[in-house]
């Protein structure tokens, strides 16, 4: 059914300007919350996600930027419909935003509008729709961390605090505390704060513990039914398996306990006041180094500063994509039709133009409906389950529990399945660079194009687009 494809049309940020002849949707490339925080952007939009390769990213918009004004009009207490309209001013190809963050305020940023037809679907969106062709390269996953985040009840804007320093290191635990502080310093500098050992605005204190659980009671039944815990590891830039127990497991089944906490203490306005704090309490089934935990989890803990969304059990959404970009957008109602071609893209360089009809991609027919492509894709997934590696199983963001990577010993069979015309795998070209798609390492695609009565072949050498976004869901 077409719905599988349509659900990928998460058009970013946006306001739509439509007409009966040419409905379009314009995007800037970021998502936002209307803040209720007393400490960050109260009553204004706060940026919560930047989309890769978007106008916002190119313009320099940052995560948690506060949008103070749009086109010179203050955003304070604007309603959602008013914000939507202001983000897409009529007759303009760009939008002027006045932003503030932890490092600066009153900065004007000009963001071009990216406008596309509402019935166009991009390769970025198709990569998600057909991700089971290559879950090694494209997946959307959700994970939860047992973080507890607190914030002062006072009304004080966090952009008043610019400089930070660390509390004195305990010499008995200098190695651990130095590692924790190094991870914190990296994150807070990325947010725009500056380290200053003398006269800081905030003092950062940490507390931690790790050891055997004195109340541990081994349970064989619980161990057998236990799910694997995956989280995104910023230090490795990938999802990793951790020896943590999932939510809801009794503490008595944890062989080890780990605690790590961070406090930001006011040294400028009201000395001694705790402005922000985050604490992680983990149940572990195996030994794990506290320093390693700090390196992989402090970036996640700090994602809730300066804008706090949840006080407990923070849920994260990670989207990872690597796919072949040619620059083509397709007509969702007739996927063989080229709806648009990005200028200076590989497809444009190969001579493909708007309204061309793509008959084949690498000998796979494109002359199928969205419903037929989707039905064939679902059947392909079912038929190729024996070719997947069960040790890599994970649940995706949509709740599908049988996501698995390909078995490396069965790449020949995988290629056979990809090349079978019955499977309608034309859009597998998005992953032509993968070893199970191209054993020789060749990453080029042959498109058979019909333009009017003329038919031709276009050899396209795609660019690999790689993007990862981690956001608080």
Give the SSE layout.
Blueprint (H helix, E strand, L loop, with lengths): L2 H4 L8 E3 L6 E4 L2 E5 L10 E6 L4 H5 L6 E5 L2 E2 L5 H7 L7 E7 L6 E6 L1 E4 L2 E3 H7 L8 E14 L11 E4 L7 H17 L3 E2 L6 E11 L7 H6 L3 E5 L4 E5 L13 E11 L7 E11 L5 H12 L10 E14 L2 E4 L2 E8 L4 H4 L7 E5 L2 E2 L4 H14 L27 H9 L25 E7 L2 E7 L2 E10 L1
Parallel strand pairs: 12-13, 12-14
Antiparallel strand pairs: 1-2, 2-9, 3-4, 5-6, 5-7, 7-8, 10-20, 11-18, 11-19, 14-17, 15-16, 17-18, 19-26, 20-21, 22-23, 22-24, 24-25
Helix pairs in contact: 5-7
What would you say this structure looks like, in words?
The radius of gyration is 25 Å and the shape is globular. Helix 5 packs parallel to helix 7 (290-301). A hairpin with a 2-residue loop joins strand 20 and strand 21 (334-341). It has 3 domains: 3-118, Pdz3 Domain, CATH 2.30.42; 121-138 and 322-472, Pdz3 Domain (Roll), CATH 2.30.42.10; 140-320, Double Stranded RNA Binding Domain (2-Layer Sandwich). The longest helix is centred in the middle third of the chain and has 17 residues, at 174-190. Helices cover 18% and strands 35% of the residues. The strands form 7 sheets. It has an 8-stranded mixed sheet, sandwiched between helices. It has a 4-stranded antiparallel sheet with strand order 6-5-7-8. With 473 residues, it is α+β, with helices and mostly antiparallel strands. It contains 10 helices and 26 strands.
């Amino acid at each position: 059914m077409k719905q599988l494809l349509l659900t990928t049309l998460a058009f970013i940020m946006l306001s739509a300007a439509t007409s009966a002849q040419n409905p379009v949707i314009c995007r800037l490339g970021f998502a936002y919350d209307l803040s209720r925080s007393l400490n960050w952007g109260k009553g204004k939009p706060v940026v919560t996600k930047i989309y890769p390769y978007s106008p916002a990213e190119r313009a320099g918009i940052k995560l948690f930027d506060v949008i103070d004004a749009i086109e010179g009009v203050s955003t304070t207490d604007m309603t959602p419909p008013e914000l939507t309209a202001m983000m897409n001013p009529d007759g303009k190809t760009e939008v002027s935003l006045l932003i503030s963050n932890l490092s600066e305020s009153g900065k004007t940023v000009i963001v071009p509008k990216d406008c596309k037809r509402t019935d166009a679907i991009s390769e970025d969106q198709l990569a998600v729709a057909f991700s089971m062709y290559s879950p090694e390269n494209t997946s959307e996953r959700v994970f939860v961390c047992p973080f507890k985040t607190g914030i002062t009840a006072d009304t004080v804007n966090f952009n008043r605090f610019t400089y930070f320093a660390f509390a004195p290191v305990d010499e008995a635990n200098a190695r651990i505390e130095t590692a924790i502080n190094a991870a914190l310093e990296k994150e807070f500098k990325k947010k725009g704060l500056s380290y200053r050992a003398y006269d800081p605005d905030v003092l950062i204190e940490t507390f931690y513990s790790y050891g055997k659980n004195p109340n541990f009671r081994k349970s064989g039944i619980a161990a057998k039914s236990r799910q694997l815990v995956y989280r995104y590891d910023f230090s490795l830039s990938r999802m990793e398996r951790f020896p943590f127990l999932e939510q809801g497991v009794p503490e008595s089944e944890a062989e080890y306990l780990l605690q790590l906490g961070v406090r930001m203490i006011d040294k400028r306005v009201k000395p001694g006041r705790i402005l922000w704090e985050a604490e992680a309490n983990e149940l572990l089934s195996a030994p794990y180094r506290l320093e390693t935990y700090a390196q992989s989890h402090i970036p996640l803990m700090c994602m809730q500063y300066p804008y706090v969304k949840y006080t407990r059990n923070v849920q994260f959404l990670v989207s990872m994509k690597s796919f072949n970009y040619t620059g083509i957008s397709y007509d969702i109602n007739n996927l063989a039709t080229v709806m648009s071609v990005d200028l200076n893209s590989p497809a444009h360089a190969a001579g493909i133009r708007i309204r061309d009809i793509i008959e084949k991609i690498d000998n796979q027919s494109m002359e199928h409906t969205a419903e037929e492509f989707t039905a064939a894709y679902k059947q392909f997934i079912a038929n190729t389950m024996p070719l997947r590696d069960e040790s890599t199983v994970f649940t995706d963001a949509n709740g599908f529990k049988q996501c698995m990577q390909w078995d490396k010993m069965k790449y020949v069979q995988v290629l056979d399945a990809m090349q079978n015309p019955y499977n309608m795998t034309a859009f597998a070209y998005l992953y032509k660079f993968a070893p199970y798609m191209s054993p020789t390492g060749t990453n080029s695609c042959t498109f058979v194009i019909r333009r009017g009565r003329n038919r031709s072949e276009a050899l396209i050498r795609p660019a690999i687009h790689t993007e990862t976004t981690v956001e608080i869901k």
